[in-house]
Amino acid sequence: MHQIQVLDQAVADKIAAGEVAERPSAVVKELVENAIDAGADRIQVEIRKGGVEYIRVADNGCGIPAGQVETAFLRHATSKLSQIDDLYRISTMGFRGEALASICAVAEVEVITKTPEEEEGVYLRLKHGISEEKSEIACGTGTSMMVENLFANVPARMKFLKKDSTEAGYVADVLGRIALSRPKIAFSYTCDGKEIFTTTGDGKLASVILKIYGLDHAKALLPVDYTESGIHISGVVGKPELARGNRTRQTLFVNGRYVKNHVIAKVVEEAFRNNMMVGKFPFFVISVDLPAELVDVNVHPAKTEVKFANEKQLYDIAYHAVRNAIGAGEKGKREEVL
Ligand code: ADP
Ligand code: MG
Fold first, then answer.
1. Residue 61 — φ and ψ, nearest 5°?
2. Closest ligand to residue 73's CA
3. What is the per-residue DSSP string for 213-250?
């Protein structure tokens, strides 16, 4: 005989938390996306011991009103989505209202935040979802989130983590891609007291590429800029000399969000077919911007997969965009982007 039971809330929260806060890099991604949604133009990320011991994300965005700080940590609490219709017109990075609830279920969290309208900021500390201390604090406008002892209460999750340096590498990768998607935001990433990279926020993609991949990459870029049927393809592809034996340096954004789409990667590779050796993959940072109703980003909680309404048309347009960039490069018409 078996008996069906409804999970108690704490257990259900821990399970749900595992989907959003899978590892330190996922926590950083969520916190940084919140900073972007808050309109910040400066975002500092600091981690210690692979992010398990300590993560801090500080922004100069709009802050959280003092009276709503606790609410922000409740499940399904969001200021970004109020009606179901909005789901098809998402312009913010977040919309599920799950990240803060998930993170604080599996860690100790401190937040310091202030809106421009308020004189004083507020400090709140929570442990495993329960608020432990709240006070006023003097601080500038914006939000700092500190996450400590991640997964200390979920030993099973802990076991899945790799060594600190590997986890720190994942954080660098996630943050690097976010920085590439937002050249107007100045990012900094510090790991165990060492500065790994900073971007200037000067608005140029090539400047971000310089900081993240180095001068050889920044000097070998072909600009992509092509619009057809309301679909805008922009960014850069690397000259063939930047090609590598794997796809780790391929980055795709759809409406400002980092996504994975193998077909678009294949389309770019196809465009390079006569310029590149078999087994080599081109460098690219490409943004696809299209009307929100033509793309569904809602297929997976981590939101790195997308579905397009008219795939064939999109792939044709992307192919043309990249072919044009390569063609202009061959004719020496390439504009200097750095
Ligand atoms: P979502 O981003 O899906 O709305 P979150 O759990 O990530 O859900 O955040 C909940 C709410 O907390 C957000 O909707 C926002 O109002 C507020 N918030 C979180 N982080 C910040 C931040 N850095 N600056 C301003 N507001 C924030
Ligand atoms: Mg969020």
1. -80, -160
2. 1
3. H-HHHHTSEEEEEEEETTEEEEEEEE-GGG-BSSSTTE
Binding site membership of 62 for ligand 1 (Cβ less than 6 Å): yes
The answer to whether the CB of 61 is under 6 A from ligand 1 is yes
Q: Which CATH architecture has domain 9-198?
A: 2-Layer Sandwich (3.30)
- pLDDT-derived band of residue 92, with 50, 70 and 90 as boundaries? confident
* pTM across the whole model: 0.91
CB 103 within 8 A of CB 21: yes
- CB-side neighbour CA atoms (13 Å) of 126: 25
Res 78: pLDDT: 82
Question: Which ligand ends up closest to the CA of 77?
Answer: 1
142 lines ligand 1 (CB under 6 A): no
Q: What is the pLDDT of residues 115-152, one digit of tens each?
A: 999 999 999 999 998 999 999 999 999 999 999 999 99
The CATH number of the domain covering residues in 216-330: 3.30.230.10
Nearest CA to ligand 1 atom 25: 63
End-to-end CA distance of the chain: 70
Sole residue written with tokens 């072919």: 323
Domain boundaries, the chain: 9-198, 216-330
- Residue 184, phi then psi, degrees to nearest 5: -80, -10
pLDDT number for residue 27: 96
Q: How many residues does the chain have?
A: 338
pLDDT tier at 275 (50, 70, 90 boundaries)? Answer: confident
What is the pLDDT, as a whole number, of residue 332?
65
* Ion ligand 2: protein residues whose beta carbon lies under 5 Å: 34, 94, 99
